[in-house]
Design goal:
Elements lengths: L7 E5 L7 H12 L6 E5 L1 H10 L5 H13 L4 H7 L5 H12 L4 H6 L3 E8 L5 E4 L5 H11 L9 E3 L2 E5 L8 H6 L4 E5 L24 H26 L3 E4 L14 H20 L1
Parallel strand pairs: 1-2, 1-7, 2-3, 7-8
Antiparallel strand pairs: 3-4, 3-6, 5-6
Helix pairs in contact: 1-2, 1-10, 3-10
């Protein structure tokens, strides 16, 4: 059972549209008044986490399912037109400013700590950012955290080149533990036992010639991810953390546009979030 203390942390994995599972979990937490003194999100997890921190129940679901169906903001057409597989102008400017306004005031008044993870192009290492006061910098950080390699352009935070936080740290549990949060809930977007396959990444140098450290980080990504998942499963079995994850192998793709699949995954997240509160 989830019990919140001053040492509780919430860790949110990414996963593109698989993140609707996380939005279901977080809506469940909001419905039940569950707030963490520390949270950290990566990529889609960073996006969902922002709506959770501002306590805007249903906002992430509406953005990821309802507005996807209306605006069709993911796909090859965007990659060919703007060099980005997602319409970042719509997602990170029009949505939070006009269509489904983000509550920056609530973010500024959030008493806990919320970090978002990016990967530095220069060092290939994870960068952890906390920003509550400056809306433009908040968007810069979450945009960088969500900038997938190869299909999204390099983003910039404080003038420094950044990409998807999941490259360097897909599941930043150790970051929470290093900061002293040892009562953690980890929300994953893959079933238990899932591992990434090792891939030949020789082509990566064609995309990031200026950033050899980033090339190396991308080549090592799957191995590091698998190591993180193995560690999480061991800690879970030892009763040191609580993990909420989909129960079956994932049918939703990173760029999924089937609203029925997305709604089903959201509902599974909500149900398992509720189970975590009761068991």
């Amino acid at each position: 059972m989830i019990k919140i203390t001053d040492k509780s942390g919430l860790i949110l994995e990414g996963g593109g549209m698989r993140g609707v599972f996380t939005s279901g979990v977080l809506d469940c937490f909001m419905d039940n008044g569950i707030r963490f003194p520390y949270a950290i999100g990566v990529s889609a997890g960073a996006c969902n986490g922002l709506s959770y921190i501002s306590n805007q129940r249903g906002r992430a679901k509406f953005s990821n399912i309802d507005l996807l169906e209306k605006y069709d903001y993911i796909g090859i057409k965007h990659l060919l037109k703007k060099g980005n597989i997602m319409d970042f102008d719509l997602l990170f400017h029009t949505f939070p400013n006009e269509i489904i306004p983000y509550d920056y005031e609530r973010l500024a008044n959030y008493e806990g700590h919320y970090e978002m993870v990016t990967t530095s192009c220069k060092t290939g290492k994870a960068c952890y950012f906390e920003e509550k006061k400056n809306p433009e910098r908040v968007i810069d950080i979450v945009k960088a955290s969500s900038s997938l390699p190869f299909v999204c352009p390099i983003a910039y935070v404080d003038g420094e080149p950044m990409v998807d936080g999941g490259i360097a740290s897909s599941i930043p549990l150790m970051r929470a533990r290093e900061l002293g949060y040892d009562n953690n809930v980890v929300v994953l977007t893959r079933n238990r036992g899932y591992r990434k396959k090792e891939k030949d990444m020789k082509f990566v140098s064609l995309f990031y010639r200026k950033y050899p450290a980033l090339q190396e980080a991308i080549r090592n990504r799957n191995r590091i991810y698998n190591e993180q998942v193995s560690m999480i499963e061991k800690l879970e079995d030892a009763g040191e953390i609580i993990v909420i994850r989909p129960q079956k192998p994932m049918e939703v793709d990173r760029m999924e546009r089937d609203s029925k699949k997305l709604i089903a995954l959201y509902e599974e997240g909500y149900e398992l979030g509720l189970k975590g509160l009761r068991n």
